[in-house]
């Protein structure tokens, strides 16, 4: 149980509100009962006093108290001040409370006392009953409040889960709210679904544009490649051929990204020795890298796509970092590290983004290599993460399943 969840917060608020209402009602009942007990005690004390006064006047005998040293001095002062009968609640001994009544008579003061113990015990019993009833009500209300809060809490968890799926790339995820119109959670659900739909539409439009541009460029590019090969040998021709090769690589990368975005790629897995695949991939790039392999790992994956991922990581390390480039193979994990300035902050936060490097110190490029590597890793079910080493340099880690 998560005590910080909305369900328990609502339950706590309901419990606090119930406690406040119970306390207010309990205080009112206690106060009202106390006042009624005092009023009844005063009435009984005055009745007893007048009975003793009448008896004294008729017979000259009385059991009333006449010793000023015994009568409470507050009552004496009040009677002498007003000259009329008065009452006083004596709480000097809480276990034996008395209600006094006195009045002046024959230059003296007659006083009687009435036991208030039964009233005090009744009031204490009432207080205990109120506390017990309050605890019983809380024992019922708090679970009911938690259960009642579970429905909106479950709906909010569903909204949060769908939002996380959308953030992870599942743009087909929808909440499909079933609540009543005007309900706040329903409004949030509708807003999230609308946001996902708009985002999906924009992303599909972007993917379609990329694919269309790449396809439209293939035809003139093919003619351009052919024409470049027919140029006479020379420095200018070599420069043209080099730029044509760069343009051809860019178009091929765009086509590959469009296929990855469309989900048209499927892995063809086979059991391959991981160290040999990595070594062959590095050799085909023609770049220098220090390879360290622990054990003789064998993994079931798509060797062609794995080769594409390793090649892109090594090329990216040389293009944007500084040597030495180190490749470490441990079990089914491959780490590629350079000793340059490290990955830019936006890449560490949001992942690779096409046509964005956003860091002059990491050289030049189109920002497609890592995007393709991430897409191919997703196709083969691998996890590709990026981080910066504490002592400098970028580290790309590929974990194969």
TrEMBL record:
It catalyses: ATP + protein L-histidine = ADP + protein N-phospho-L-histidine. GO terms for molecular function: phosphorelay sensor kinase activity. InterPro entries: HAMP_dom, HATPase_C_sf, HATPase_dom, His_kinase_dom, HisK_dim/P_dom, HisK_dim/P_sf, TCS_sensor_his_kinase. It is found in: Cell membrane. Gene3D superfamilies: 1.10.287.130, 6.10.340.10, Histidine kinase-like ATPase, C-terminal domain. The keyword Transmembrane helix applies. Its EC number is 2.7.13.3. Residues 212-401 form the Histidine kinase domain. The chain crosses the membrane at residues 130-149. Its main location: membrane. PROSITE patterns: HAMP (PS50885), HIS_KIN (PS50109), PROKAR_LIPOPROTEIN (PS51257). This is histidine kinase. It comes from Acrocarpospora phusangensis.
